[in-house]
Amino acid sequence: MSGDDRTGDAGTSVDPVAPVSVGRRVLFLVSSAALAAVTGATVLDEVRPAWSGHWLDAQERLAVAGVEDAEGAVPVRVPQLHVPALGVVDRCGACHAGTDRPELAGAPAPLATHPGPMLELHDPEKVGCTPCHDGQGRATRLPDAHGSVAHWESPLLAGRLVQAGCGRCHDRATVARAPDLRRGVALMDRLACFGCHEMPGAGVRGRVGPELTYAADRASPAWLLAWLRRPADLLATPRMADFGFSERDAADIVAYLLSFRGRAGLPEAGGALESASDAALDRMYEAGGKTWRTARCVSCHAIAGTGGTLGPDHGRIGEKLSVEAIAAWIADPERFLPGTRMPRFRLPEGERLALAYHMSEEMKDPAAAERLAEVASRADSLLSSADAARGRTLVHSLGCLGCHAVAGVPDARPVGPDLTRFGEKEVGRLPFKAGWDGPRTREAWTRAKLESPRSGGETLIMPTSPIAKQDLDALLVAVLSLTAPAPASAQADPPRPAGPAYPPGPAGALVRDLKCLTCHALGGSGGTLAPDLTAEGSRVQPRWLFDFLREPYEIRPLLVERMPRFFLPDAEAELLTTWLGVAYARDGLPEVPADPAEAARGETLFEDLRCRGCHILGERGGAVGPNLSDTGRRLDPRWTAWQLTDPARAGAVEPRIVGSAEDARSLAAFLATRRVETAAPPGGPEAGGAP
Fold it and tell me: Residue 10 above 70 pLDDT?
């Protein structure tokens, strides 16, 4: 073997200068070119990122518009906003460079100015973008910035869902420019979602259904069976959801409820009604109908969909409750439903019985009666083999005690998951059903859950409520709005109390008994359906207030929910009149002299300002605002002048059209001459005197 021979391990000769194959050379060149391209693209993206193109486009458009501070160069650093109070770092303005520039109105996205007046109400330099819109504020690339990437739990809220972000800083139930959010929160209250779920929000939180201890005394077994099987068969708009109970489930629950029978102690009216002549029953029916109309029950209760919505529709109450049960409820609603919004009317026993008889006869539905007759024919058979112990288990395990009370049973914890921060719940923790083929997002899962609560498995217990399409969208907004609130320093609305705060003392007890704060506010607490009573002692005259409490009449023609007649005795009407006049009065109102010349000038102003466009005066006028025909008896002229000067501070929903305090006094002097004389009931404060 020569000295320069070389062999491999197997004795094969190896040429040290053998050429590299053509294939390897090509592979090397291609990979080098790819590396160079990637490196070049990376460098270019860093030197001229995608957002810089939008930035330069905005500057060019601003320069064309003649804006002097327009700069053509791309910033060295990414434009960003830091809001320490909210923990926000937003770089959204890098692409959305025209958000707060009216000069770019009409420019294509993403340069378009922010739509609507939101930036007038929310300074972007103080709020940023992501607290309202979500997304990933620190990102500078489109998918990342919009949150459309894996593992980012706050993707951009789009369309109507943007309203969900308002709940971080605003009261969800009252935020002015979020109609879907307000509607959704109201729906969650009406559907009593808080009966099964822990959740934040304003409004009364507690049992919304009647005491189950008395259920078997108030309704027949057939009605209870039919109601449990399908509530919509017996009530057009039931608040109770449909649990999908089988006949056996319903029978077992009714058997459990029957174990409490006799505890209600209802008055015995059946014998008196059975022995009454047809003529006597006719008179009772007519008397009850008169009381129904006089008390204005329709202000709160609809009949087959026509009327108020504060209480349940009574179109089928004659099928549900006995005469005795209706009379007992009217006498003391609080006994059967603690915390109810139903006031206690001051009706004598005979009038209560007549009203109950009228309702039981008049408010029936043939379709519901037919359904009940069919169930009644099988009720004895179903209940003979029912298991009351199993019924008790169903009542406790399905969350019935979240809305209903049972005597001797303590409050139970909600059976559903905590929704307090559902809008931030990780998508990976949502139980998507087997075979899910839609987008795996919080929005998609929540919509499917609301549409079909039990579609994800046989062990699910959430009941079904009939929800219209527009209501479903609103509910989706409300549920997704349940996130951690912004810091207290950033809150736009003060927290509302969980329920109305009734004043102390005898007058406060009377206000509570009459449920005044269901519709009225007093001292910052209560409803918004009727005028705020906080300054009622200065707004109205004592004589008028006493008369009105005794026998209310229509003031605002367009309202459906109007003041009911409580049949107050003189002593209670006088107590409220005196108390409001002393405790809820305002100082510093302007004096309005009773000067005929001033009143004549005010009459001319009234016509020149076209006040009749919204207000009735005498025989003519619009119905948008209160009827002013009796203003001279109703309102204190000093209040009228003060309100006209600045309606907003007085809580009035009317435009500010009065030019000066002098004009306001003239109008007040004129309106003080407008009176509709009526026969006042006896007693009460003297006309024109202090209460």
Answer: no
